[in-house]
């Protein structure tokens, strides 16, 4: 008898690709599956680090620095290498441009190709190379900012806005302070300040732990830990940029802080308790997501996270077959 396989995609705490009894899941906390972990942000990591999983070595090191040590049968691979995970199932990790070690997963099985993006940034940043599209039959696409109200300014423009604000805040005698994610955004602003201004950067403990990993890849990054000897000296001087994962104080060593945030949500929301909100995002906006779909040119798009329904509806309006997969528990069969 000639055997045939049944392929389907579903969603249960993350997208899951099933081929008969084998299940490969992406950024899911569901136990028992083979896990592809796209990057080290908290909403994408497996709850049980002992799962069978696949990720970059950078992702595992960053997860460990953020308090999730990786054990069990985890496979670490660099980008662009074919990894055979089961009979006839080959997975390749492809740079996602979202943060250090972030990857998309290109899965090849039974003559089909599926691309799971995780979080993507096709623009790149001062540290990260941009994600490049990969041709695929099926695309599982993040939709965090998948609504037409999200059109981000070019990164260079936002960088200039940030640098101008830092300089003017220092001139007025205040300390510019950023409350940002400890992994990714912190190091991007650090790299920006390091490369453009001769002003020291102070970081909190969370950010210092993550930045120590980043520095192995980007040795140009420089910062002082807030509780180190040198850090305390810089604090007394009062001329520095503070990057912190929490809003720790309003005044340090007699110097008043002016707090800012840097997030894509600043495109549509106000942050009244902050002096400034910069729309700096490590994700693609709606328009870059739409362009990415054109370049991948899949037969079907499954959208996940954020504005998944709205992005799928917009894709359907352009003639694409698209569905928000996180809105249903159904199995979607692949033929
Ligand atoms: Zn992320």
In short:
The protein is of the alpha/beta class and 335 residues long. 24% of the residues lie in helices and 27% in strands.
Could you say what the CATH architecture of the largest domain is? 4-Layer Sandwich
The percent range for helix content is: 10-25%
At CATH level 3, the topology of the largest domain is: Metallo-beta-lactamase, Chain A
Structural class: alpha/beta
- Name the poorly predicted regions: none
Total E-strand runs: 21
How many distinct domains?
Answer: 2
Distance N terminus to C terminus? 20 Å
Average pLDDT works out at 92
The best one-word shape is globular
Topology as a string of helices (H) and strands (E): EEEEEHEEEEEEHEHEHEHEEEEHEHEE
Task: Tell me the layout of helices and strands.
Blueprint: E1 7-11, E2 15-19, E3 22-26, E4 34-36, E5 53-55, H1 57-65, E6 74-76, E7 82-86, E8 89-95, E9 103-109, E10 112-116, E11 138-142, H2 155-171, E12 175-179, H3 185-196, E13 201-203, H4 205-217, E14 224-225, H5 229-237, E15 241-244, E16 251-252, E17 255-262, E18 276-278, H6 286-296, E19 300-304, H7 308-317, E20 322-324, E21 332-334
Parallel strand pairs: 3-4, 4-5, 5-6, 10-11, 11-19, 12-15, 12-17, 13-14, 13-15, 17-18, 19-20
Antiparallel strand pairs: 1-2, 1-21, 2-3, 7-8, 8-9, 9-10, 16-17
This protein binds zinc ion (ZN).
């Amino acid at each position: 008898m000639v055997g045939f396989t049944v392929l389907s995609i579903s969603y249960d705490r993350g997208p899951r690709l099933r081929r008969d009894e084998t299940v490969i899941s992406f950024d899911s906390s569901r136990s028992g599956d083979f896990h592809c972990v796209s990057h080290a942000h908290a909403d994408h990591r497996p709850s049980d680090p002992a799962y069978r999983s696949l990720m970059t070595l950078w992702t595992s090191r960053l997860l460990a620095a953020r308090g999730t040590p990786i054990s069990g049968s985890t496979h670490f691979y660099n980008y662009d290498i074919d990894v055979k995970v089961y009979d006839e199932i080959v997975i390749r990790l492809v740079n996602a441009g979202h943060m250090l070690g972030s990857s998309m997963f290109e899965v090849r099985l039974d003559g089909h190709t599926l691309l799971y993006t995780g979080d993507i940034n096709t623009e790149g940043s001062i540290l990260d190379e941009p994600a490049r599209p990969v041709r695929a039959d099926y695309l599982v696409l993040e939709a965090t900012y998948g609504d037409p109200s999200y059109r981000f300014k070019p990164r260079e423009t936002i960088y200039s806005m940030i640098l101008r604000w830092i300089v003017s805040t220092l001139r007025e005698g205040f300390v510019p302070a950023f409350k940002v994610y400890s992994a990714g955004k912190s190091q991007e602003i650090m790299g920006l300040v390091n490369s453009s201004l001769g002003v020291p950067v102070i970081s909190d403990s969370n950010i210092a732990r993550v930045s120590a990993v980043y520095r192995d890849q980007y040795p140009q990054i420089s910062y002082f830990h807030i509780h180190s000897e040198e850090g305390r000296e810089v604090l007394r001087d009062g001329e520095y940029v503070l990057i912190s994962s929490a809003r720790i104080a309003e005044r340090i060593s007699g110097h008043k802080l002016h707090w800012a945030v840097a997030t894509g949500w600043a495109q549509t929301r106000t942050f009244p308790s902050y002096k400034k909100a910069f729309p700096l995002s490590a994700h693609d906006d709606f328009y870059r997501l739409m362009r990415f779909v054109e370049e991948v040119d899949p037969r079907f798009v499954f959208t996940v996270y954020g504005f998944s329904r709205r992005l799928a509806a917009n894709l359907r309006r352009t003639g694409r077959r698209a569905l928000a997969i996180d809105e249903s528990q159904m199995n979607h069969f692949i033929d």
